[in-house]
Amino acid sequence: MKRQTINQCLHQLWQIWQKAESSGTTPASCAQLLDSLNTDAYRLLERLDALRQQQLHELQGRARLQRAMDGLPLDEEVFALFCKDQVSFYGRWLARFDSEFSAQGAHCALQLSAREILLVLRLAKDLQLLGDRPLKPLLQFVSLHLRTHRQEPLSYESLRKKYSQLDAETLRQVKQLLIKMNQRINHYFVLLSNK
């Protein structure tokens, strides 16, 4: 059986709690639900502890490696390779946390291409719908939580590079989308006036 992520353990625990909160409480059903809550709460804590131990062990190993490399006379090329490897390690290290705490399969697939998603984001940013937030966290959010109509993951770097690139076809597609949205709003006004 595949090991549950921390997020899955937490979700399961919430489901049991909700069931306990909404069900009638006979002594037998209450005891069973409380046992389930206790069991799953311990499972969650065990997963958290195992993740903490694993992450700490890897981090300590990398810290020892960094200290060992500090005093060595390395040429720039070798040092650049070492730095690249270290940065790559931290990316994997963070991704493990992300995979444990992110809702698995909770990506929102939009019926848009990556360029169309970026144009809608750009419009929202230009019109101050997102306040004065910097672009980087917005692109990170898109990368983590949105997918294209083909279920393609969106990499932050790719999004960053494409963000300011405009092309006529994407502009046409998004304009058509906005026209359809405007037509739908007009339809809602008709429905509202018929009440």
What features would you describe in this structure?
By secondary structure, this protein is mostly helical. It has two domains: 6-101; 108-193, no CATH class. Helix content is 74%, strand content 2%. The chain has seven helices and two strands. The protein has helices spanning 6-22, 27-70, 76-101, 114-126, 135-145, 156-162, 168-193, and strands at 108-109, 146-147. The termini are far apart. The mean pLDDT is 86.
Provide a concise account of the structure shown.
With 195 residues, this protein is mostly helical. The protein is 74% helix and 2% strand.
In whole angstroms, the N-to-C terminal distance is 54 Å
Helix share bin: over 70%
Q: Give the percentage of residues in beta strands.
A: under 5%
Number of β-strand runs: 2
Task: Please trace the helix and strand order, writing H or E for each element.
Answer: HHHEHHEHH
Give the averaged pLDDT, no decimals.
Answer: 86
Q: What is the radius of gyration computed over CA atoms, rounded to a whole number of angstroms? A: 25 Å
State the strand order across the main sheet: 1-2
Shape: flat
Work out the helix count. Answer: 7
Number of discrete domains? 2
Topology:
Blueprint: H1 6-22, H2 27-70, H3 76-101, E1 108-109, H4 114-126, H5 135-145, E2 146-147, H6 156-162, H7 168-193
Helix pairs in contact: 1-2, 2-3, 4-7
Name a few traits of the molecule.
195 residues; mainly alpha; 2 domains; two-stranded parallel ribbon; 2 strands; 74% helix
